[in-house]
Here is the input.
Amino acid sequence: MIFGYARVSSFDQNLDSQIEQLRNANVDRIVQEKVSGVQNQKEELQQLLNRLVKGDTLIVTRMDRLGRNTKQLLELIEELEGHGIHLVILNLGIDTRTPSGKFILTVMSAFSELDRTMIKEKQQAGIAIAKRKGTYKGKKQKFTLRHDGVKHAIELHETTNKPIKEICKITNISEATFYRRWREYKKQKENIPTSTH
Here is the structure.
């Protein structure tokens, strides 16, 4: 099935132009939404994405109808591809049902990755300069062993049989953070001298 998605950012804007383009693209059904692109929660879009199944096609008139930036779009495309769902972006001539469409997306993905690498390199260069000047303070750790959530997670792990996943949900910390702090906590405990009487 071929679905079209049309979105404008405010209620006084008109969807007619997008709907006309989508109809010309022979979609079976059009989903419409009036919500700002800055908002992460686009309910109609989310419901549509949940409804799509393998072999379906999603058509939009422009890339920014789906996400604010290339990164968001590429993440969505990756998710759709993983489920065997095709994407068509009319103004860019991208159609993942065709080899050329897939190639354009690969190029976009490469540029996005390059952009991220360049930002990272700039950050690292800035840190190196700050270290040489002696002004680098380092990344402030939010989830230290003194953090209430971390303390609660460790306490739950020691006093209950709850799985780590559940503990992290309760204490609102990530599993990676828990394991890092748990190792740190164990190390600290091992280094505490026990009194001998």
